[in-house]
Amino acid sequence: MPMKELKIDAQNELIVERLLHARRYSLILDKNLCKGCEICQITCPREAITIIKTQKKDGEKTKPPKIDISAQKCSYCGMCEPICPFSALQMRVNGEHIVPVIEKESFPKLIREIEVDTSKCDVGCVDCEKACPLNLIKVTILTLDGQEVRAEDLKAKSRKKDLKVKVDIKKDLCPCCRLCEMKCPKDAIHVRKIFHGLLNISLEKCPQNCQDCLDICPIPGALFLDNDEKVHPNDTFCVFCGVCKLVCPVEGALKIDRKSIHHTPVSSGAWNKAFEKLTSTNEYSKEAKLKGWMKAQQTVEKRLVPTKENEA
């Protein structure tokens, strides 16, 4: 039985805690990173996470929903942390960053596959830095001996060949929208999306002059307003977080169909249930069949590998 359950709702973070005799479990939501999407709520096996829609005032843009966490319902399993595309949640045990489901290898981590070839970068180009909607990219110009060159001093450098480019990306916070890749003029960045799928908007159901989904979308270009004054989707940049669907005022006008999730290998009932809820029964069946085929292939390969006795 817990000795105490705590909940601290501050301006920049929400903390729920459970204090036992020997352990202190903490789940922390960073409100600055959270976009109010549905991923954590869908994944939570205890329905401890609630989405609260914000009231829209006349003349103002729609604001993202807020996330609330129940200290009583939360089991502190940590499933919500690794699945969050914006890394807004963190689990701690006795003050140490520990995710129980990751420690037990019963839940995967999202794979944020981002490759940068700075040899292709033009000195002075900061297109990727400007393109990042979450300010996760920092481009730095260095001399060959590693000294930083300020932007205002760049013109004074006569030989740009004596300079090199350094691109720092906060990969742990990146939802892999691919905006930096598409905006890069030299094809120096390659990003593999975490969530793949389809975003469909019914133009018949979509209200005229409504831009609620466009107002709160965290990724510029994932939704856009066309000449018909209706919002249209762009799957290329969409991270399929689902916040647009949450604020849509018309039921069924906007649908998200997640097809796959780029994650580390894992096989567990907890992940199977979470994957099915995040995608669909059909997509879960496809992944289950693929896992079965890969497992069978590995078994065959092991049998074909000569043993030491046979080699002797």
Total domains: 3
Helix content: 10-25%
Strand order of the largest sheet: 1-2-3-6-7
DSSP strand content: 25-35%
Uncertain stretches of 5 or more adjacent residues: none
Given helix and strand content, the structural type is alpha+beta
CATH topology category name of the largest domain? Alpha-Beta Plaits
Our count of helices gives 10
Protein described:
The chain has helices at residues 39-43, 80-83, 100-103, 127-131, 179-183, 212-216, 243-247, 269-278, 281-304, 308-311; strands at 4-9, 13-19, 24-30, 49-52, 66-69, 89-93, 96-97, 113-116, 137-143, 148-149, 163-169, 189-192, 195-201, 223-225, 231-233, 254-261. The radius of gyration is 23 Å and the shape is globular. The protein folds into three domains: 4-103, Alpha-Beta Plaits; 113-191, 2-Layer Sandwich (Alpha-Beta Plaits); 195-261, Alpha-Beta Plaits (2-Layer Sandwich), CATH 3.30.70.20. The longest helix is centred in the last third of the chain and has 24 residues, at 281-304. Strand 2 and strand 3 (24-30) form a beta hairpin. With 312 residues, the chain is of the alpha+beta class. The termini are far apart.
